[in-house]
Amino acid sequence: MIIVLMLSAIMPVVDRLADRNTLSSTKNLLLEIDETIKTVAREGPGSQRNLDITLNKGELYFQNDTYQIKWIMETESELMEKGIDIPEGNIVQHLNATRVDQISNLMLWITSDKYNTSINSRFSNPFTGKHTLTVKHTGIILLNENPLIELKIT
Hints:
By secondary structure, the protein is of the alpha+beta class. The protein has 1 helix and 8 strands. It has one domain.
């Protein structure tokens, strides 16, 4: 009986630490993807980089045609105040309530109006697990004068 009480008290703390660690590693992943896209765009047509992506929790979404990368994870931890966008460098963080009591959606995203992306993948959004992301400058400059960056996800 005492062990059950101790576990019920400790598990929320363990879950919160795990979610905080996932949040931190996902921020780093989004920043790495963002920096890779910027590098490829600066280097010009034909420039290409590969990244290995591993998502242990949550789902990653790539917006086609515009430049938006979004990650969403369900959590029972309140890692920040709900309903407020919290910018941190290039990343915006947001915690939303869901229809399920005590479960929230934690979201991170990066957007830019300086690049457009084209998604090339046999998979579709959302992406989970392990993938390789190839970021390539297509050499195409769009009417808005943005370079078109291909994101190939395998």
